[in-house]
Amino acid sequence: MQATRLTLVSHASTRAQKRARFALDEPVEMDWQQAALSQAQRFKRAPLVVCGPEARTRQTATLFAADASVETALRDCDFGHWQGLAIDEIQQAEPQALQAWLIDSTSAPHGGESVAQLCERVGQWLHSLEQTPGHVLAVTHPFVIRAALLHVMQCPPALFNLIDVEPLSSTELRFNGRWRLRLETHA
């Protein structure tokens, strides 16, 4: 059985991230056109590059390849009517709803997708990759990466908010009969 290598890359920083807002479909803050293909030589062999459908993931994917494929399973969590709002605004307008969402992974008071639903979607996508040998690089969102880590580590969704994912950070996962988290040094 040939192994699957999955590199998850968090999209570049956005204005919403810096302002603690639930994002709309917004661009990254870096000059992604100037930086196009700047990370293409990062790996010995070119990986299959996929990304979420949002502008911020598609723009970040251009750092790695000119022709990334859009994978809808990598879309950001659906935050319903909270999209575009700051956490502080929600805390003021809907404090009980925000608290419920933070402590109950099945809660979706915003009318969108719950953390548990997101984890299920990402787990199904990871399962589909188990028959895809070779290297896949997926440019996606911090919430999707958190969900992937919970799946691989077999942790409950209740631990979701204990993981921080920085812009442009990468996470290595490997599948060879079972998923593993791989920490690498870049010395």
TrEMBL record:
<dbReference type="InterPro" id="IPR013078">
    <property type="entry name" value="His_Pase_superF_clade-1"/>
</dbReference>
<dbReference type="InterPro" id="IPR029033">
    <property type="entry name" value="His_PPase_superfam"/>
</dbReference>
<dbReference type="GO" id="GO:0016791">
    <property type="term" value="F:phosphatase activity"/>
</dbReference>
<dbReference type="InterPro" id="IPR050275">
    <property type="entry name" value="PGM_Phosphatase"/>
</dbReference>
<dbReference type="Pfam" id="PF00300">
    <property type="entry name" value="His_Phos_1"/>
</dbReference>
<protein>
    <submittedName>
        <fullName>Histidine phosphatase family protein</fullName>
    </submittedName>
</protein>
